[in-house]
Predict the structure of Elongation factor Ts.
Amino acid sequence: MAEISAKAVQELRKKTGAGMMDCKKALAESDGDMTKAMEWLRKKGITSADKKADRVAAEGQVGSYIHTGGRVGVLVEVNCETDFVARRDEFQALVRNVAMQVAACPNVEYVRVSDIPPEVVAKEKEIEMGRDDLGNKPDNVKEKIVQGRIEKRLKEMSLMDQPYIRDQNISVEELVKQTVAQIGENIQVRRFVRFVLGEGIEKKESNFAEEVAAQMGGN
């Protein structure tokens, strides 16, 4: 059995909010594997962040981030349970960091995979099924390859599945859970909107040669 260090126990506790002894036991049961230990805690219903996830979070804050130059702006709503926690520095820092994350991830369109509409998933599957590199493969093999690609694609569209920009070793979901463990309330990223300067505006492209010819013809 792997030797469990105090540092590993502390790291697992920070990620999950579970008690020290539970974290030590989870790591022992998982041979020191952090990911398996987190799964073990979830299966046992010990993770405090998961326990709090069902509690109503109707307070919180709408935060914003404007990127340098004013070309990209983000509004994000993050909810917690009480107005007191909404005013805490830790919560407000989380809101700012989530807004910055959205600005840094132009391909992200939804908060979580479960928010992606079925029609979008179906369209992505149709695109993947039609790729040239799958043409000669058996249907059962093709289905497995497509399923793997779809799962990867959907995670690319999900904010909570993104590697956190300030610590690539954790996801945005893990960042939120760390804050839940820290402040002791349910926290939910509810929605966001990204504004990109000029997006959707059809820009007129001038043809210099045609402009010169038109001016000469008018003389």
Notes: The longest strand covers residues 72-80. The CA atoms of residues 79 and 138 lie 47 Å apart.
